[in-house]
Structures are given as C-alpha cells and as structure tokens.
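Section 5.1 Outputs to date
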Amino acid sequence: MPAGQLCQGRQNNYNAHLQVTSDLHSTKPPGILISLTPVVFLVLGLLYTVRWAEGPVQIPLLLATGFAALLALGLGHPWKQLEEGILKGIFIALQACLVLMVIGTLIGTWIQAGIVPAMVYYGLKLLNPGWFLVMACIICSIISLSTGSSWSTAATVGLALVGIGDALGVSSAMTAGAVISGAYFGDKMSPLSDTTNLSPAVAGSEIFDHIRHMIFTTGPSYVLALILYTVLGWQYRDNALDLSTVGTMLETLEANFNITVWLLLVPGAVIVMVLKRVPALPALFFGAIIGGVVARFAQPGVTLPAVLNASYSGFVSQTGVEAVDSLLTRGGMSSMMGTIALIFCALAFGGVMECSGMLGSLAGAILRLARGTGSLVTATVVTCIGTNIIASDQYMSIVIPGRMYREAFLKRGLHPKNLSRILEDAGTLTSPLIPWNTCGAFMGATLGVSAAAYLPFAFLNLANPLLSIFYGFTGLTMAPAEPDTDQASVGANLQGEGEAEAAS
C-alpha cells in the first residue's frame, strides 16, 4: 500500500467520486450477466497476453475499457458520464503516480551515490542465508510498523534485501514475498498508515479498537508466515551455496563504490522524516535530492550531468560482474512510466465499471447470497478482492465494500470493528498480489519481481483473508455490537450520510 499519509483527504475524494457517479446513474442498473461480460473479456485478454503472447498487460486493460464503455453506451449511459468516470478513476491515482516517479528517481540516485550498494554490502556481511527470509520479513515489519509505509519500506530496505538474497542464492521471488509480507504487516498494524485510518473511518469504528481487533487475524497469519520462511531458509542453508559469488560481489562493490557506513544516514533520514509524519512525497523527494548530492561528492568521477541522467534514465552498472550489474542497473523516472501507464489503463477500466453501475451490480449479487455471518464475511472478502482486481486500486477495495456492507453488519448485530478488520484483511493485503493493481504494479516495478512470481510466497497476504473467513463461519473473535452505544452511533452516522448526500 502507498506510504502513510500519502493521500491525505483521499477518503473525501472517494466519497465525492462515489456521490458524483451515483448522481449520474439515471438508467436501470445492468444485470449480472452483462456486468460480468467485461470482466470475462479482461480475464481472457490478460490470460492470452501474459501466458502466450508475453506482451504488455496495458493493451488488454485498454481493450477491456473500450469494451465495457461500448456496453455502457448500449445501456443508455452517455459518453460524458463514462468519460467523467474514467477521469475521476485516474485522478484518484495521480498522487501515487507522482510517488512512483519520485521513487524511480530516488532509486537511480541512491545506487549512483553508493547507498544501495552499501546496504547490500553490509547485508551480505551480516545476514546468514539460513535465516535470511525470516529476517527479511522481520526487518521490513519493524520499519513498516514504525513508518506506516509499505511503499517506502519496499523502495529502500526491500530493494536492498532482494539484491542480498540474489547474492546468497535465495530465490528473488521468495525474498520479494518475505519483503511484501513484512511490509504489509507493519503497514496494516501501524496507526501511521493511511489505510489503517481509512478502514475504521469507513466502517464506523475507532482506530485503536480496529488495530487491537486486527491482532486476532494478523497475529496468527504473521506467525505462520515466519514459520514458513524459517522452513524455506533452512532448506537453503542445507544447500551448497557458492560463497565465492558473495566474495566476488563484495570485492566488486568495494572496487566500484566508496562504501562507508555514513551512506546509511540517507535512508535513515528518510525513515525519520516519515516517523515525524512528514508526507511521503516530500520525504522521498528529499531523499532523492540528497542521494544526488551524495553521489556528486562522495563517489569518484560522478558529475552533475551523470546525476541528472541517473535521475531520469536510471543507473547503468558497468562493473563487468553480471551479478552486480543486473542488481544495480535500474531506477530512474523513466523506468516507472510503464507502470504509470498500467495504472491509468486499469483505473480507466474501473472507472467505467463503477460509473455504469456494473461494479455495483456484481457486488449486489454477492450480497444477496449472504444469509449468515460466515457468508457475509465471505461476501465482504470476495468483494474486496474483486474490487482490487476490477477497480485496480487499494483504496476503492476499502471504501466501496465498506459503504456496501456497513449497514448489513449493523443489522446482523456485529460490531463495526469486524467490518474494518475484514476490509484490511482482504482489501489492503491482497492489493499487492494483483499485477495491475496500483500496489502490485508498484511492488513489481520497485523490487524487480513480478506479482505473479512473488504471490505464492507472500504468506501473510494469502493467509489473512482465509483466516478472516474462518472466523466468520466459526464466530471466533466476531465481536457483537453494543446496542446502546455502537449500533446507535453507527446508525446515526448512516442517517447523517444519507441526509448529506440528499442535500448535496
């Protein structure tokens, strides 16, 4: 998920977006079969492109957007309405796209400045391959919990850990999975995180009640993830690792960069800024600039034009050692443009699906199947995951299901913190597992590992939604509403929202 405080006021933007699209609906909602057609079209297009054509996924997303728009036009929705939905969908992700460009610049300057090489260098000296995966998960958990930012964690420490794992002979997909699990554990449980604040706001619960309630699902999932990473790491320890490769990498890094522990002050300063609640965009931009300054004066032979080139086009490593060059040749603003195009295409599709009422029809059909607490929880989980897939944005996977099921949980006598927990269990944690979701696209571009590759090893993200469903059917940890307090206050909030929408 994007960094804590990345999108302040994002909830208000979403509420306005949902209200505008609601006002625009003047036609009869489409049926379930019609609403499913664009989704099937998209899935088949993505399957063909990824599996057989090995082409860019932006094209099937763009074609699916056009197909959905044609269906919507046939249902009587004017083009102006559809265009409004597309533009509003893209507008939601503009801040995330700015962060992507800044992080691309940051990666380029940090590699050129020797910051990333220093992190890899000291990591190779300190980390044991047998415990690498579990330590990678724990390290990312601590940093993300402290900062509330999975994106910043992945772009700094996560990137270095992937390089260290490669040098130790550990699968980059496994390392990325451990980084994702750790980063999203901290992001999900941190009061500094934007989604940790957004979920209870949408569901009608208090943030610290929400965090405490998430322990019941996130805690066991995290322990399971650590156990699995320990098992995987133990298998690697038993394998014969080529330590000469590690030695060669250390010598190459020493020969081509001025490696010093003082370089680690730069990422440390960025982490401190986020801890001090400096918004992520200026904090990362500051880190990119400082990286460029350090590169100019701390590394031999680096000129100002070289810094500018690395900022935009990325750093190109020419050490002659393939393991080092493949790790350090990356970054730059231009490296993120394909990801930004993917996000635009995905959100355009989600915008058409929402403003035409197709997304609402799909969610409504799911809600009609919810007859008990277990099926209601399952419906919420499925809707969150489906929204992540269709709308391609993590925030929509929290806001839309939260608004849809808030009253249903209330009528069933369930405390709002149950809903807020499920929104994070399924909405927040599955977002990096979808390659075309804003979070999945970011993590894939930043770590250099596709979401499809690291998905089987993101154990926390996979286990959390399943455990949430288990609790729904068994009733374990499902807190009842307090009729004289919580239910009444939430009911008043719902009434107030309705009156506000009617007035607007």
